[in-house]
Structure formats: C-alpha cells, structure tokens
Amino acid sequence: MAVYTDISEVELEALLAAYDAGSLLSYKGIAEGSENSNYLLHTTKAAFILTLYERRVDKADLPFFLGLMEHLAEHGVSCPLPVRRRDGEVISEIAERPAALITFLEGMWLRRPAPQHCRQVGRAIAGLHLAAQGFALSRPNALALDGWRDLWRKAAPRADEVEPGLSEEVEADLATLGRAWPGDLPTGIIHADLFPDNVFFLGGEVSGIIDFYFACNDLLAYDVATCLNAWCFEKDGSYNLTKGTALLAGYQEIRPLEPAEIEALPLLARGSALRFMLTRLYDWLTIPDGALVNKRDPMEYVRRLRFHRQIRSSSEYGIGIT
Ligand SMILES: Nc1ncnc2c1ncn2[C@@H]1O[C@H](COP(=O)(O)OP(=O)(O)O)[C@@H](O)[C@H]1O
Ligand SMILES: N[C@@H](CCOP(=O)(O)O)C(=O)O
Known about the structure:
Number of helices: 9
Keywords: Amino-acid biosynthesis, ATP-binding, Kinase, Nucleotide-binding, Threonine biosynthesis, Transferase
Pathway: Amino-acid biosynthesis; L-threonine biosynthesis; L-threonine from L-aspartate: step 4/5
Strand order of the largest sheet: 1-2-3-5-4
Bound molecules: adenosine-5'-diphosphate, the ligand N[C@@H](CCOP(=O)(O)O)C(=O)O
Shape: globular
Domain Aminoglycoside phosphotransferase: 27-257
CATH class of the largest domain: Alpha Beta
CATH architecture of the largest domain: Alpha-Beta Complex
CATH superfamily of the largest domain: Aminoglycoside phosphotransferase (APH), C-terminal lobe
Enzyme class: transferase
CATH topology of the largest domain: Aminoglycoside 3'-phosphotransferase, Chain: A, domain 2
Protein name: Homoserine kinase
C-alpha cells in the first residue's frame, strides 16, 4: 500500500477550489504504487488522480515530469495530463506535500502479461522515445552509476543479511559496469520505470502509460533493457525468450536499434537489474516492517543480475529472431 499522507475532505475541497475541476463527490487512497501517495477523486465533472509527492521525488523536478506528460500527450502518447489550476499552475500543496491533480486513465495493468502484450510494450516505449524528442527540458538520471554507488554505500554494511556473499557480488558488478558502461549510444528521454504496473491495457491494447517520476535523459537502449527485466522474466526467475523476442521486435518496428545498442544489451540489462536491486535493497533495509508500503524483493533482481552476467551474446535475449 502506498498512502503515506492522510488527507481530509476539508483539505481536498480547499485544494479543488483552485481548479476548475468540479466539486468533490468522493475520494479514496489507492493501495497500489510505492513511491508517492495517490488518491482517486470523483468530482461533479470527472474522475482524477491526486498525487502527493513523497519519497524520491525532488520538488524541483516536478516541472520536468509534468511538462513531459503534457508534451507526450500532445505528441500522440496516451498518458495522464496534469490539470492546470485557474492561475495556470500545475503544482499545488496539500498536507505540506507538493501535489498535482492529473487526469484519470482508463484500463488496468496486467499481472500476467503474454508475448503479444510484450510486443505492444516494445512499440509503446519506442513511440515514447520518439515522441519525447523535442521536449525542451532535461533531467539527468539520478539513478545512474553515481546514484547506484550512493545507494550501495548506504546499503552495503547490511547487504549480506539479505543474501550471504551479496556484498562481494555487487562490488564486482559496480566495478565492471563502471569500467564498461557505454558512453556513446543514442540518448533521449526515457521512462526509466516501465514495469507492468505502469502500463494500462484496455481490451487487449495498451491504453496508456503512467508514473513518469523516474523519467530522465539517458541511453534509449537502457530503457529497453529495463523493459526486458520487468516484462520478460517469469516468477521462477527464468527468462522467457518468446516474450523477449516479442518486446524487442515491437520496439524495432518503431525505432530500429543500432548495432552498438544491440551489442550493449547484456551490459545495459545488467546495469538496470543492479539499479532496481539497489533501490529495493535500500528500501528493504530501511522501511520498517509493518509500514503501509509495498516492499519489493531485492532477491528477484539479484537473480536477474546473475542471469545477465552469464549472457554471451544479445541474441540470447531474442534480438533478431522473428
Ligand atoms: N492517471 C491515472 N489514472 C488511473 N489510475 C492511476 C493514474 N495514476 C495512478 N493511478 C493508480 O495509482 C496507482 C499508483 O500509481 P503510481 O504512479 O504507479 O504510483 P507510485 O509513483 O507511488 O508508484 C496505479 O497502479 C494506478 O492504480
Ligand atoms: N518498479 C520499481 C519500484 C517503483 O515502482 P512504482 O511503479 O510503484 O513506482 C521496482 O519494481 O523495484
């Protein structure tokens, strides 16, 4: 559950008074998600999502995230739109938190995506990469190599409590990735967290993408690698080649990967697995048991890391197989 901050109807009515979004009929906290507090609101005009920014979101980055959603929506990507207040602003404050009202997106996320869904996700992420070109703002990836090292410094002393020997594994990965991380691949704006819970489907088709709060400028192929990690592994930790093949084919239908991007996939997938392992490990060790937050298992991503370490060629992910 992710509702970190409780709000009252009195606070909400005061907030809505600044918008032209109707008056409050009902609201409830949303159990899903892990980073921010989200409320579903029904007003006399429509349904909305109110997000209170909590954990890793820096208020200074909100114009980037909210502006990006506007830019993407204008360029054909189905995603929520921030609602402007009567004074033209999109960022409000409620319960001492920065907050934004965004439009409600119909659809549901898939607990058990199939290869045809992975193909669509590949297409959607490539479409997002192309649509984001020309967005005026930029934001460096706070969870790139330096960010991983910061997280690791904080988590390292207790890492072996989660898995004996984990410290040694992560030190070796950080050293390898630090030496070999590619610097010369195509860059642009990436979603950076395109997990199944951030892609909505309606009637078997992608109906929209949500949760742009890790979006940043980075290697485009790194986003593809994150999708391989998030969509193409089974519960038992095995890689599903059919899903990987479908996702990569979907991406290539819209934006063909360059040979250097294809070659870098094992390294990028390993880096992406390390990134999600580290945020999960940090949360695992710091969020108290019993807190109303979904704590995600870092071991799931330790297993992904081990898989990527033994990959010898990108063809093992399904690239080029049709
Ligand atoms: N625009 C939206 N339309 C419909 N539901 C949404 C929207 N934004 C968020 N949600 C709901 O809130 C949940 C958590 O949102 P998310 O942005 O993933 O939160 P977090 O940033 O905390 O992970 C989603 O799984 C979805 O159920
Ligand atoms: N996708 C991340 C956690 C953050 O996910 P969110 O969609 O709830 O913001 C992970 O799986 O570690």
